Amino acid sequence: LNCIDGDLGVFGEIQYAVSNNNFAVANGLLQVINPLDFESTEVLVLTVTCLDGGSPPKSDSVTFLITVLPVNEFPPEFAMATDSVIITENIRIASTIYRA
Question: According to the 3-state scheme, what is the secondary structure of the chain?
Answer without folding.
Answer: CCCCCCCCHHHHCCEEEECCCCEEEECCEEEECCCCCCCCCCEEEEEEEEECCCCCCCEEEEEEEEECCCCCCCCCCCCCCCCCCCCCCCCCCCCCCCCC
